[in-house]
UniProtKB/TrEMBL annotation:
Positions of the NADP-dependent oxidoreductase domain: 15-311
Protein name as it appears in the record: Aldo/keto reductase
Keywords annotated in UniProt: Oxidoreductase
Amino acid sequence: MEYRVLGKSGIVVSELCLGTMTFGNTTNEEDSMAMIHRFLDQGGNFLDTANVYVSGRSEEIVGKAIQSRRSDLILATKVRFSTADNVNHVGLSRKHILDGVEASLKRLNTDYIDLYQMHVWDHITPIEETLRTLDDLVSSGKVRYIGCSNFLAYQIMKSLGVSDHNRYTRFISNQPQYSLVSRQMDREVLPLCIEENVAVLPWGPIGGGFLTGKYGRGEAPTEGRLTSKAGESSWDLRNSEKNFRILDEVLAVAAELDKTPAQVALNWLIHKQGITSPIFGARTLEQFDENMGAVGWKLSNDHWNRLDTISALEDDYPYRFIKKFRREF
């Protein structure tokens, strides 16, 4: 396992982050704890959860699993979505953030959260209120660093500007969806994060299971995340000819290297410029072991470029116009 600096900070995280969204749901507590311990034993030091995963059960399992090794790892969680049937139990208001952090600390059985992330932008709460509250949490020691997730480029830049103007703590990370079959962040968000030294922690790195190679053209899934009719991992969003051409290339590279398609997709992402630590999940210990096989080796330049080229976005306006007149020395 290799390590990278987490954005504009002084801490380092493993090149893979273990996501815990399935813990307490499709993955039972025993297997969930086993995954965490295996991950730490194999050099991983970065765990990601959220207060709404399985109604807080994920945080409880994580807290139970890490007690004897708390200081050895970087623990990330999130706040923003609804936690109760009450109009003020949602959003990024000072009230909801302060209620949320106390509840997360209790479930995680810890005194502090290393990385506290805003799960998505709140169009009601002024960003100044959100950032002032987060700055107070950092000053109090309950939170060490802050980050965002699913923000647009202008939302990230506005947040950084407000923080700089008011001398508040800055976001050091952004957690977007990003994979070979979901590269919309290439337009604005990824270049911004590189420019501003904001760590990128992609979720959905194997396209919700699409890049495992389990599904073929005309074969709608009957199990797994792709069966959902809603959300970013629905079959309707994955079932396109371009995505299947990308999958064909992943399968070809995997066969040439004697690796699994998931390992190839993750390895491409690990070595993508601007990417700090992809967040992978697993329902079973077998899936966990397979995903961990994505580290310890590197795609050749030819294999990496083949995957990068076939999955690249089209050069639409204004990007092709700007590219045409780009000045370089």
